[in-house]
């Protein structure tokens, strides 16, 4: 049923409330409806927004010392792009992750990637009658295991499995089908800007 469903699920964690302050990135790749790869990386946030705030550290546990020896976001980003490899992107609350990437790229002086993207939070709001649509709530409804919430690698895996679960639920063959089945359209990110996915 999901044989053409191929995408990369993305999750980022930030050092402070400024969305461009990315300090961790997770990616899970799904090919033909099957999870085939999961990666996560730490990175130093872009210099203009590199301070770590106590609230964010409490949420994800990443400290300045944890990233001190890591590549900067700009240095890490090509490796992330090579794993995504041109696939469309999915995120849970994509507004946050896409704007974080947009701002981090801007702070780092690097062009935005070219991606179609969708949001599992928006899709769940359109298809599941839940009291809220937080990652854990949606995951529990679809029988997806959550091991380490706010760990970028695990949250990317959970978002990927939610997308596959929603595709199965709606009989969607691919990501554009899933977006349509949920009454939405895929968003678009490119060097010329971002168009939302609602």
From TrEMBL:
Concerning Gene3D superfamilies, the annotation shows:
Ribonuclease H-like superfamily/Ribonuclease H
Coiled coil, from the record: none
SUPFAM superfamilies tied to this protein: Ribonuclease H-like
Q: What are the annotated GO cellular component locations? A: cytosol
Exonuclease domain: which residues? Answer: 6-172
Spell out the Pfam families in the cross-references.
Answer: RNase_T
One MF term in the entry's GO annotations: 3'-5' exonuclease activity
Tell me which domain of life the UniProt entry assigns to the organism this sequence originates from: Bacteria
Q: Which PANTHER family match?
A: DNA POLYMERASE III SUBUNIT EPSILON, EXONUCLEASE
User: What name appears for this protein in its UniProt entry?
Assistant: DNA polymerase-3 subunit epsilon
Origin organism is: Nocardia puris
């Amino acid at each position: 049923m999901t044989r053409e469903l191929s995408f990369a699920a993305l999750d980022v964690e930030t050092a402070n409330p400024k969305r461009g302050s990315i300090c961790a990135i997770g990616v899970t790749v799904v090919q033909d409806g099957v999870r085939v790869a999961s990666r996560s990386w730490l990175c130093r946030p872009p210099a203009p927004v590199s301070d770590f705030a106590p609230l964010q550290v409490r949420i994800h546990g990443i400290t300045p010392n944890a990233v001190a020896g890591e590549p900067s976001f700009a240095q890490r980003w090509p490796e992330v792009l090579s794993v995504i490899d041109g696939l469309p992107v999915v995120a849970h609350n994509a507004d946050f992750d896409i704007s974080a990437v947009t701002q981090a790229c801007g702070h780092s002086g690097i062009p935005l990637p070219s991606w179609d993207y969708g949001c599992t939070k928006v899709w769940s709001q359109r298809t599941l009658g839940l009291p809220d649509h937080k990652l854990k709530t949606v995951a529990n409804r679809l029988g997806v295991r959550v091991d380490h919430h706010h760990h970028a690698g695990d949250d990317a895996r959970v978002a990927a499995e939610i997308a596959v679960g929603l595709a199965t639920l709606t009989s969607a063959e691919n990501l554009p089908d899933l977006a349509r089945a949920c009454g939405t359209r895929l968003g678009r990110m490119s060097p010329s800007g971002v168009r939302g996915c609602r």
